[in-house]
């Protein structure tokens, strides 16, 4: 054997990232390796935090220092030996950026190719590709240009114009915002009396002082007595430099200022009080000028075979692929070939039901992940390591087989495929399995099993024991106590759907990906009065956030400490007055070394405890605040449950965290170290405290191990038995089998779906055997 052919293993020795405990594994190259284990056992830490991270870091180091300055600086993982790495291509579950200007087309380069196509073939010809871009505005100008020519200065008149495709009315957003002025100010008051009712615009704050001291407005006159000019200056005046209290500042009307500061952000990313204000004060309507297409009249006037670019982007991608296949123009043959390949990849991967104008932020985690896969399908690269994070998320059992075929095709081209996965259907196709555990958090981080799937089945690990678990159909079903009537639902692809969703039971809404489940439930049962909606959006949090801050647990703990010691609650926050002054409450000091990785060293002043030394002298129940934050959820539940430290408000939150299976998490653990499944359950625990009789859960089994699904089903049962109504949008057969009522949508995705094709009990669904869901559920319960 040639020595070059002997490097057929990726060797990892002594990995200690997050909760890994000196893990050593050898992974075969050019094979499909699946990593299993309960949620939080260390799978992502090994695959993403160690192998993929080091591969990316080493590739980045091959670039010049100048280029590295523009790249994210990655730290070297805490591992002794990493051998045999190849270039890693990471396809993770990160949701696509929810920028209002980002669509499926812009995120996948399909729009870029369509713009070139229309600029070449569209009639009438209106300009370059940017004339079809809703992110480029049309501008023109003229002026004198001074140049030196032959030693003398010459002035010449120059004109320029840029033809963009942006709709001038909505500025390429597709919708226009209308302000309810009564929510911006109280017109019976003057500015000095606090007329502005916008969050953060107090008169002693900076914004209030700018409006009062600008000279454009009379601070002592009630707003209802303003002249037309004063009202225009208050609401719409364009940015103007003024001097207020001796400082040069920019004065701007309320409307443009709110548009820039609040409306440019994604709604989900806003703070709760800002979101409430935006919902109250601003209404969004489809732009009347472009009819929501985002494009100018000129861009919409240019057509190919009777279709303009807006029509093309609105089509279902499977239909658009057919339309592009029908175009035969030798002058743009390479472009048509690439565009056809991209659109066919959408269809092949099961996303043919999307349209290119769908906002990227509305894609689910699974859809976003499959959209990222598109650029790798048909790639001629080999000997690459592809790293996938639960590629079956959001997929109906019918679609999982298609995903499995894609993973095997990538492997058969000579690539190493590493997959973090919980679904037995995907684990079953693995050439090699690495099972981590035995538990989660500090109870995990070790390799419990390495070998093939047959060996895993007979092993004594948690995954091995649960691998062939099958939930059986219930023989008795709860009776509905009422019904939520949905009539004439038409959101997205729904076709005048009428359905009664039963209350007081566990109701599962099923159907293939893209059949209209989320459109029906989220579109017809909005979160609000009496409805607690827990969707798939990821939880946001920086390295300063932890389970205690995210769940609101820290508030009752701080108040209890403050009351017991007779001091302010703010002292017990590492983000406020109690923070260690050296590290500002981070526990570590970061040293930025430019293109090299940032070095984090434990703070010498507080020894990583994050608090000022004087704060740690205050005790509650015999513990200081840093010791409390170092407890696990289970320990803290006991601590705050009885005795001197009894705090009912804190105990209630801890109880909910324990119920969703997070008893092992430390209260002060940074949110950035939590796995996808742990974050999903933390979100569930937080919302379980919300007041409401109807719970709407969107795929709560995401990121959950087979053993954790049992615990989730127990939790759902307890919710229903306590008098709540639970509606679950779900693909997992165990949840379907456990439900009292199933609403199945389909029969297909996109315009082939959008209809209710079955309503009834799981037993009736299996007996009918007509729908795709029925066939897969029947196979599951009989297996």
What this model shows, in words?
The protein folds into five domains: 3-95 and 363-466, Rossmann fold; 104-169 and 291-345, Up-down Bundle (ABC transporter ATPase like fold), CATH 1.20.1580; 175-286, Helicase, Ruva Protein, domain 3, CATH 1.10.8; 469-539 and 681-782, 3-Layer(aba) Sandwich (Rossmann fold); 547-673, Up-down Bundle (ABC transporter ATPase like fold), CATH 1.20.1580. The radius of gyration is 29 Å and the shape is globular. The protein has 783 residues and is an alpha/beta fold. Strands 5-14-15-3-16-17 form a six-stranded mixed sheet, with helices on both faces. Strands 21-24-25-20-26-27 form a six-stranded mixed sheet, with helices on both faces. The mean pLDDT is 87. It is built from 28 helices and 27 strands.
Oligomer designation: single chain
- Gyration radius (Cα, Å) is 29 Å
- Rounded to the nearest angstrom, the distance between the terminal CA atoms is 45 Å
| Share of β-strand residues | 15-25%
Number of helices: 28
Largest sheet: spatial strand order = 5-14-15-3-16-17
- CATH architecture name of the largest domain: 3-Layer(aba) Sandwich
Global shape: globular
CATH secondary-structure class of the largest domain: Alpha Beta
CATH superfamily of the largest domain: P-loop containing nucleotide triphosphate hydrolases
Derived structural class: alpha/beta
How confident is the prediction overall: mean pLDDT? 87
Q: What is the fold named in CATH at topology level of the largest domain?
A: Rossmann fold
What's the structural domain tally? 5
Helix percentage range: 25-40%
Task: Say how many strands there are.
Answer: 27
- The poorly predicted ranges are none
């Amino acid at each position: 054997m040639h020595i070059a052919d002997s490097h057929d293993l990726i060797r990892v020795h002594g990995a200690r990232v997050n909760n890994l405990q000196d893990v050593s594994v050898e992974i075969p190259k050019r094979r499909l390796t699946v990593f299993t284990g309960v949620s939080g056992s260390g799978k992502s830490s090994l695959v993403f935090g160690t192998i993929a991270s080091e591969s990316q870091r080493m590739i980045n180091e091959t670039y010049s220092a100048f280029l590295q300055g523009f790249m994210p600086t990655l730290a070297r993982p805490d591992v002794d030996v990493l051998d045999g790495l190849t270039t890693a291509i990471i396809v993770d579950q990160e949701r696509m950026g929810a920028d209002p200007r980002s669509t499926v087309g812009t995120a996948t380069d399909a729009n870029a190719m369509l713009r070139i196509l229309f600029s070449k073939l569209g009639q009438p010809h209106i300009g370059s590709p940017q004339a079809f871009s809703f992110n480029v505005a049309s501008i023109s100008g003229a002026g004198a240009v001074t140049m030196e020519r032959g030693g003398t200065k010459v002035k010449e008149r120059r004109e320029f114009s840029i033809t963009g495709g942006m709709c001038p009315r909505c500025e390429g957003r597709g919708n226009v915002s209308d302000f309810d002025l009564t929510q911006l100010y109280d017109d019976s008051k003057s500015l000095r009396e606090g007329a502005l009712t916008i969050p953060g615009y107090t008169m002693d704050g900076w914004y209030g002082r700018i409006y009062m001291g600008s000279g454009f407005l009379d601070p002592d006159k009630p707003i209802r007595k303003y002249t037309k000019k004063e009202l225009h200056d208050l609401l719409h005046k364009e940015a103007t430099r003024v001097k207020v209290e001796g400082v040069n500042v920019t004065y701007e009307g309320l409307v443009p200022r709110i548009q820039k500061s609040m409306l440019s952000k994604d709604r989900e990313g806003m703070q709760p009080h800002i979101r409430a204000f935006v919902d109250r004060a601003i209404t969004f309507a489809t732009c009347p000028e472009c009819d929501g297409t985002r494009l100018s009249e000129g861009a919409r006037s240019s057509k190919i075979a009777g279709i303009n670019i807006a029509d093309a982007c609105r089509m279902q991608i499977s239909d658009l692929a057919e339309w592009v296949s029908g175009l035969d123009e030798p002058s743009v043959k390479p472009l048509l070939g690439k565009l056809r390949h991209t659109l066919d990849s959408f269809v092949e991967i099961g996303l043919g039901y999307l349209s290119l104008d769908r906002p990227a932020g509305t894609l689910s985690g699974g859809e976003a992940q499959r959209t990222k896969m598109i650029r790798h399908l048909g790639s001629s690269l080999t000997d690459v390591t592809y790293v996938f994070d639960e590629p079956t998320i959001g997929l109906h059992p019918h679609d999982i087989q298609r995903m499995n075929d894609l993973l095997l095709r990538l492997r058969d081209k000579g690539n190493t495929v590493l997959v973090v996965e919980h679904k037995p259907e995907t684990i079953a196709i693995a050439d090699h399995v690495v099972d981590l555990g035995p538990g989660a958090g500090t109870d995990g981080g070790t390799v419990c099993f390495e070998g093939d799937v047959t060996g895993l089945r007979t092993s004594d690990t948690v995954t091995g024991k649960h691998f062939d678990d099958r939930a059986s159909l219930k023989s008795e079903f709860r009776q509905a106590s009422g019904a939520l009537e949905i009539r004439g639902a038409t959101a997205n692809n729904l076709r005048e759907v009428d359905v009664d969703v039963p209350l007081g039971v566990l109701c599962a809404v099923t159907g293939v990906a893209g059949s209209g489940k989320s459109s029906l439930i989220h579109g017809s049962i909005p979160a609000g009065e009496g409805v607690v909606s827990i969707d798939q959006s990821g939880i946001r949090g920086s390295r300063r956030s932890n389970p205690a801050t995210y769940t609101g647990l820290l508030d009752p703990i701080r108040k209890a400490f403050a009351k017991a010691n007779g001091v302010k609650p703010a002292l017990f926050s590492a983000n406020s007055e109690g923070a260690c002054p050296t590290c500002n409450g981070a526990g570590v000091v970061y040293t930025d070394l430019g293109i090299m990785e940032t070095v984090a060293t434990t703070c010498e002043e507080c020894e990583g405890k994050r608090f000022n030394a004087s704060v740690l002298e205050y005790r509650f129940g015999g513990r200081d605040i840093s010791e409390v934050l170092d407890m696990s959820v289970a320990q803290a539940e006991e601590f705050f449950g009885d005795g001197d430290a009894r705090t009912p408000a804190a105990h209630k939150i801890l109880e909910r965290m324990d119920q969703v299976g997070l008893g092992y998490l430390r209260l002060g653990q940074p949110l950035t170290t939590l796995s996808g499944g742990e974050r999903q359950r933390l979100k569930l625990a937080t919302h379980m405290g919300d007041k409401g009789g109807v719970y709407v859960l969107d795929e709560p089994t995401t990121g959950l191990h087979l053993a954790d699904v049992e615990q989730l089903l127990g939790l759902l049962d307890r919710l229903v038995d306590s008098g709540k109504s639970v509606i679950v949008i779900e693909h997992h057969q165990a949840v379907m089998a456990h439900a009292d009522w199933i609403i199945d949508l389909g029969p297909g995705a996109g315009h082939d779906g959008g209809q209710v094709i079955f309503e009834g009990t799981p037993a009736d669904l299996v007996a009918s055997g007509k729908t795709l869901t029925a066939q897969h559920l029947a196979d599951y319960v009989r297996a």
